[in-house]
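Mods, move this if it's the wrong board.
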Amino acid sequence: MNSALFVDGLCKEYPGFLLDRVSFSVPKGSITGFIGRNGAGKSTTLKASLNLVHADSGSISYFGLPLKEHENEIKQRIGFAGGAVSYYKKKKLSEIARITGRFYENWDSDAFGKYMRLFSIDPEKTPDKLSEGMRVKFSLALALSHRAELLILDEPTSGLDPVSREELLETFLMLREKGISVLFSTHITSDLDRCADRIVYIQKGRIIAESGIGEFTDSYRTVSSADGFSANAEYILGRCKTRDGETGLIKTENACAFEGSEIRIPTLEDIMVHLEKEDI
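Not the wrong board. Structure tokens:
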């Protein structure tokens, strides 16, 4: 089995929201970005995949093992962190780590010290003395110190300054080199351009794309028009107003219908913005 995580047909219904048959995989040794607007279902999907939220239906497996039958074993092999992690504010980080280590069979105190030095975190500090970026890195240090093979991160770069975000993304690349898989949710598409191999795109509770980033962006084009797209409106997947008119998103195979127009290869952000404005 080449997947670190395989989600199949996951459903969860809340008043006013439905996570609808969500399916995707995270290949071993990959960095996979999970993208979508706020409220699209990213956090619900990640929490359901960890059994922190009980799904109505669907199946989840890690490393070829069903979560339902092997939850304790699996959670020894994975780590979870989010962009806003709460700890006892006045408890030393070293003490938090000591308590955390009791829950993991493979806890490695030497590895914890190594990652704390790598991330330049003083273990004698308390959480209230850490920046948001350092708190996320501390969560990563905890996860990696029990030899996690897969990290699941919910909006880890949200609220970070550009330098802290860059340092965190470089950490992801370092982990990939060690064979550790990373799945992280984000709506900051530039983070994915920087480090991710693949994307899973969720929109209104449904997965609308799962592929390599290059493959995904190459399947679209943007076209510009000063007068609108009334002549070829059926090809336009989404449109945005610009200072000089409009831009429209089209599939690459339909670019020939816009001969003579300015056609460009879009960024991941271009695609997301146009698709999310489809029904506006």
